[in-house]
Amino acid sequence: MMTGTSKITLAARRASGADLAIIAGIELGGALLLGFFLLTDDWRLIVALLAVFAAGFALLQIRPAIEDRIVSAFHAARAQALGLGAVVVLVYPFMMQGSSYALHLLVIAQLYAVLALALNFQLGSANIPNFATGASYGIGAYCSALLAIDFGVSFWLTLPIAALVATGFGFVLGFPSMRTRETYLALVTIAFGIVVHQLLNNFSWTGGPNGLVGIPAPTIAGHSFTAPIELFGQRLPSQANFYYLAAALVALAIVCARRLHDSRVGLAWNALRCDELAARCQGINVVWYKMMAFAVDAFLAAFAGSVYAAYVSYISPDNFTFLVSVTIMTMVIVGGMDNTLGVIVGAFLLTLLPEKLRIFADYRLLFVSVIVILFLILRPQGLFPQRPRSYGGR
Amino acid sequence: MSGPVLEARNLSIRFGGLVAVAGVDLSLSAGEVLCIIGPNGAGKSTLFNLISGIYRPSSGSVHLDGRAITGQPAHRIAAAGIARTFQSSRLFTDLTLVDNVVIGMHCRTRSGVLDALLRPRHARAELEAAAERAGELLRLVSPDLYQRRHTLAGALPQADRRRLEIARALASEPKVIMLDEPSSGMDDRDTDALIEDIHMTMAERPGLSYIIIEHDMRLVAALPERVMVIDYGAKIAEGPFAEVRQDRRVQEAYLGQRAAHA
Known about the structure:
- The complex is a heterodimer of chains A (394) and B (262).
- Chain A is mainly alpha-helical and 394 residues long.
- Chain A folds into two domains: 1-97, no CATH class; 99-361, Orthogonal Bundle (ABC transporter involved in vitamin B12 uptake, BtuC), CATH 1.10.3470.
- Chain A is 72% helix and 4% strand.
- Chain A has helices at residues 4-12, 17-39, 43-62, 64-76, 78-91, 100-126, 133-151, 155-177, 182-202, 239-261, 264-274, 276-281, 286-312, 322-335, 340-356, 364-378; strands at residues 212-213, 219-220, 223-224, 229-231, 234-236, 314-315.
- Chain B has two domains: 6-91 and 159-261, Rossmann fold (3-Layer(aba) Sandwich); 96-155, no CATH class.
- The longest helix of chain B is centred in the middle third of the chain and has 22 residues, at 120-141.
- At the A-B interface, helix 1, helix 10, helix 11, helix 12 and helix 13 of A face helix 2, helix 3, helix 4 and helix 5 of B.
């Protein structure tokens, strides 16, 4: 545990060369690890990379001082860390050797990262077990797709509309949920998710079980998102368009997450997570704040849904089942509750693992579960546990 | 100021057939200290829960500064100016001391979700200012707590938890502060320090009124001007401690009927 004084000095000090080296090492190392993981087909290399990944976290678990040092480096050189991260994200598609499969995985992983960040407002910040994130995701996707197909609305316009509609549904779900808590609340959200799935399955205007086909791809300044990107003599597969769109969405989700976490609202959510009665006695309107958590979750999840619909151009109710919600929840728990970075890493891990373990055919889900359990044993608080807030000198 | 800050009339609550609080009247003026004593299960904490809005009274009324707050939700009552601590401390254990106190300022700060998202600078500045004040408040209550302000509240020893809870309650700038057995689980030395702390905050904030539930008679003798005794949910005596302790019914309540007559 860091003492108060050292923490302030750490946050306020100037970035040193060592800080920059640590940041560069971690960001480039992480990118490299992910790159190898995405591009290889050799199961031995996959297992070896997972082992390296796990060893890194084992080291953090055994030597918390290393973790503190890394965190302080990122605090001291925040701008440089962000800049390098942005460059890595922008350049990354060029490193994928034109593999459309790797880019596809990255798009899906990023969309799940947004969903996990959305759920994190509830599960991580406020400890509301919401099993309906998949439903909000679906509402966003369907809303956006229907507007585009039936009314020819531009994708860029459907994005905010779908988000607002899903937020409305979030309130609709949040309102009855306020009469229940914990296990019962979880049951209400499960029911909501199933109701949405069944409705999508049975309405004729949603295409029923066949779903919606032929969702138009977005265009930007005449460039269709289905066309490959040609830049600097390099040719990126069409998935790269959505890679950048999803990356922008992740950036938006991170900004929302950081701003809310480091605000009075984030504190109020944390308060009611720990002790609802004590929170009420501090003047926190618990019902209102829980509703807000539902609304923010639905808002971001619907964004991800819109992008997903435009990306795959075909959606059916089975894309948005209860299982999707459970997966998102696992991502938050494995990654680290109430930790933005942790949740994103959790989302990538749980999206990529089942894909890369396809070699094990029927056993792959078994292996995925075993690996998830091993990671939870290794880091019981999640890969990146919640860290105390810091004030001043930022 | 004229008239009582807090006034409860004929306050009662029934849980099924059990009358936990029966027709209690209570009046508190600005800057006054009222101590509530009574045997275990007498209904003292229930009375606190009625005043702070955790329970809705079955009958009776509560007024703060002449405004009716009867049956309002707890967060409104907290915002109106009644802060409290709990018998078994209820801190936000997975947050830092500063965060705990800043949460105590919830109803004195304004930023909502849209402020946080669209005016981050403004929201952040408000929170930084709150953290600054929280630090000052912690320093006032205990320099030791101030030193540890960036550590987690769950790691504090019992006596410090109580202090932090009092700091958190003070953070909301209340008119009335209700302490539920502040000395429970403390040894004599801690209790002395606690009495010291309470005296200090009294000097610091002269207009603040206190209601204190207490079992430790040393604390009761040291602090308040007025003592109220509750037994079986009803008020059986009220007055200065020296008088109340001589009261026959009070002695019966505490010692049993036969011992009191012996």
